[in-house]
Amino acid sequence: MHIKVGGYFLFNIEHPTFTAGVNEDWIYDENGKPKYWPIDNYYYTGERETNFLGQRVIKQHHTLTQILNPLIKCGFQIEAIEEAMPSADMMGMPGMCHEMRRPMMLLVKVKKV
Fold first, then answer.
1. Residue 20 phi/psi, 5° resolution?
2. Number of helical (H) and strand (E) elements in the chain, helices listed first
3. Is 84 within a domain?
4. pLDDT in tens, 89-108
5. What confidence tens digit (pLDDT) does each residue in 49-60 have?
6. What is the domain extent for residue 77?
7. In 1-113, where do the E strands start and end?
8. What are phi and psi of 107, to 5 degrees?
């Protein structure tokens, strides 16, 4: 990939706290309500086999350091980082309130300098 000086690179990935989750699922209480989102082996990067939308998939887990520092080293300037969260009008949807308890997505905008 070649980006000219002044060009932008935008990407959206699963947040590392999401991919570092144990089985990418909540830990539930005895009544089936989410208690907490477990994170384990955060600094051990690489393949993670998990269940995603009912299918077994292989994902790649990386730390924020591994995601952002190479961009800086390649001459990019970070313009924006957004840990996406649901909008207020989505809060009435089942389970959506739990999406405020941990970030699921990471959006990054960088500019080639």
1. -85, 0
2. 2, 7
3. yes
4. 998 898 888 888 899 899 99
5. 888 788 888 989
6. 8-112
7. 8-14, 27-28, 34-36, 46-52, 55-61, 76-84, 105-112
8. -110, 135
